[in-house]
Amino acid sequence: MKLGISTWSVPWSIGVPGYPPPPQPGDVMRLLNRAVDLKADVLQIADNLPLSRMTEGELDRLQEAACLREVTLEAGTRGLDSQHLGQYIRIAHRIGARLLRTVLSGCLCGPEQMAQAEAGIRGVLPLLERQDVTLALENNEAFSAAEFAGLIRRIGSPYVGICLDTANSLGRPETLETVVEHLAEHAVMLHAKDYDIRRIDTRMGFSVVGRAVGDGRVDFDYVLAALRRRGRDHISVIVEHWPPFEGTIEATLQTESEWLARSVRFLRSKLSHPDDKAIG
User: Fold this and answer.
1) Within a domain: residue 226?
2) Structural domains counted in the chain
């Protein structure tokens, strides 16, 4: 497995709407150099730093810079409209990215939205094949894990798989075991995201809070072993974070940076020394 970082590894460094901006907002070249500093194999540039805003010349320079630094690029966007996906498939091909991750809006969806999602993906299958780009659909609360798996099976293309996220399906809600059981066999990338669950101060309810990877409740030994046992030991493992706002942007950026360093160290130890813990 290849260890990577993403624009969602450092959301505060890029900028979060409604909060103070970072003193030096992140850009793709700065993030590429961060990947090199962390000795990451992969950089995933997702929807919070849209590649569609870059010119063709900027995309070409990004591809050249990544190649020179021996970092594999992956692209990311949001939505399943065929026209929009087509634009991003071409962008992915231009920067040498073999994987394009996309995610649906964060709301509970029904049969009509599932039909639209399937139609959107089917509409770009010929382009995915021509450009040799694989679409990775990220699980979240939009559909159940079983529904995501059913969609991938119905499409039945080697150019369409799952971006398995270890936290997003809490919004459904579904356990990690349910998500892994249904989606591990279809995974073409892993979003490693950790969290804790706490009771609120009244004791009448819970809050879900982000954690550095390895500091929360996700059993990554279980997740990685499940992926390996299903032959998914070649996929990228991308750090993602939900860091809290710490009152000032400076303190928040410090927390984010510390989390990223800890997360990379933790995952590198797991990928270098796999623990094939028994799974049910």
Assistant:
1) yes
2) 1
On whether the CB atoms of residues 208 and 255 are closer than 8 A, the answer is: no
Domain that includes residue 158, residue range = 2-272
User: Block means of pLDDT (10 residues each) for the chain, length 280 residues?
Assistant: 97 96 92 97 97 97 97 97 97 98 88 95 98 98 97 98 97 96 98 96 93 98 97 96 96 98 97 52
124-128 — which CB contacts under 8 Å span 24+ positions? Answer: 124/82, 124/85, 124/86, 124/89, 125/155, 125/157, 125/159, 125/160, 127/86, 127/89, 127/90, 128/89, 128/157, 128/159, 128/160
pLDDT averaged over every residue in the chain: 95
Give me 145's structure tokens. 């894990």
The HSE-up count of residue 10 (CA atoms within 13 Å, CB side) is 29
Residue 280 falls inside a structural domain: no
Q: What share of the chain is helix, strand, coil (3-state, %, to 5)?
A: 45, 20, 40
| Number of residues assigned to the chain | 280
Task: Show the DSSP H helices in 193-279 as ranges.
Answer: 220-229, 249-272
Q: Which helix (H) or strand (E) holds 143?
A: none
Q: Cα–Cα distance between 13 and 252 in angstroms, integer?
A: 9
